[in-house]
Amino acid sequence: MSVLRPKVELHCHVEGAAFPALVQRVAARNGIDLPGLFDAEGQFLWHDFSSFLGAYDQASAVFRTPEDFRDLTFTHFTSIAAEGAIYGEVFISVDHGFASGLSYADYVGGLAQGILDAEAETSIVGRMVATGVRHFGPDRVRAAAEIAANEPHPLVTGFGVAGDERMHHPRDFIDAFRIAGEAGLGLTAHAGELCGPESVRAALDHLNISRIGHGVRAIEDPALVERIVSEGVVLELCPGSNVALGLYPDIASHPFRRLMEAGVRVTVSSDDPPYFGSSIGAEYEWLEHDQQFDEAEFAQINRTAVEAAFVDEATRSRLLARLTD
Ligand code: ADE
Ligand code: ZN
Fold it and tell me: Could you read off the pLDDT of 197-253 as tens digits, one per residue?
């Protein structure tokens, strides 16, 4: 029997991890219609980043109760555990939580219950990174940081910003990241996905982050790659997502290996699996088959991910030990 390669995922949006079957089941439970959300094959219908965000919002809106959110994380974490994941972080969205009609405490409480139930069943360890949505504006992102800081939860260990990178500048989010950082949350920001290397440089200049969501387009600027290496910043790379969104024509041409060989601390994640036809298991397979990654390289990627995880040191030691079991 083949043994599953262990996996660690740092970059997955929890609402973006809801597969069509779960969205339909929860929508039926809550009496919600979903016009135009699915194509003829039952997959989410979108054709560019803006329509992806629209479909994402429509699907997210079916989740209304703590139980719905519990089912979301339970389904996600048990399914990545079945692919070999021993640790996962999910980006939760403070504003999507409010849009469901729940308080932050009930939103996070439901999500946390699913993570703990999945851990009891599979031993997978999970944490949450509270995010603000960039295109909702700096005030909303700051409010997201404030609530994450003022209502701490043991499984919410990070803060970040997601959404449309083309809107606003990192300096508009300085306060939000300062508040979250002072509350002891790990910091990450999406950059260098839709926008070029200048967006990565600006995020590093202003937000005091240890990780970058994507950051892949740093490859276009060798001096920036050198800076990322020398500062030890970790990239949450999501090759399948980048290909689905048209940044690169295929996995073979994705700069994953070039970044790693330049000395960048890289990790691999699925981002929004059902939208991008990905999964954490598929990402590892793509790297193996289309970029010839071997076991030693996967071990390095996993170690980097655990080193960069937003966890306490005792949990980090346990996860590092599990990687070599
Ligand atoms: N929110 C959900 N998925 C995202 C992505 N790939 N980029 C930015 N924001 C997102
Ligand atoms: Zn993302």
Answer: 999 999 999 999 999 999 999 999 999 999 999 999 999 999 999 999 999 999 999
Ligand 1 pocket, residues with Cβ under 6 angstroms: 13, 16, 56, 162-163, 190, 193, 241, 271-272
Active site (annotated) includes residue 285: no
Q: In whole angstroms, what is the distance from residue 260 CA to residue 310 CA?
A: 21
List 9, 89, 193, 236, catalytic entry: 193
Q: Is 272 annotated as a binding residue?
A: yes
Chain position carrying tokens 């070039």? 258
Q: Quick one: how far is CA 303 from the chain centroid?
A: 18
CATH class of residue range 2-13+67-324: alpha beta
Angle, in degrees to the nearest 10, between helices 174-182 and 197-207 = 50
Residue 1 has pLDDT above 70, yes or no: no
Neighbouring C-beta atoms of residue 321, cutoff 10 Å:
10
Query: Is residue 271 a known part of a binding site?
Result: yes
Q: In sequence order, what are the beta bridge partners of 8?
A: 87
Query: Is 0.90 surpassed by the pTM of this model?
Result: yes
Euclidean distance between CA atoms 163 and 195, whole angstroms: 12
Q: What is the C-alpha separation between 163 and 141, in angstroms, rounded?
A: 11
Q: Which of 165, 193, 194 maximizes ligand 1 atoms within 8 Å of its Cβ, making it the mutation to test the pocket? A: 193
- Annotate 99-148 with three-state secondary structure: HCCCCHHHHHHHHHHHHHHHHHHHCCEEEEEEEEEHHHCHHHHHHHHHHH
Question: Could you say which ligand is closest to the alpha carbon of residue 164?
Answer: 1
User: What's the CA gap between 147 and 157, in Å, rounded?
Assistant: 13
How far is ligand 2, taken at its centre, from the CA of residue 17, in Å? 11
Number of Cβ within a 10 Å radius of residue 160? 33
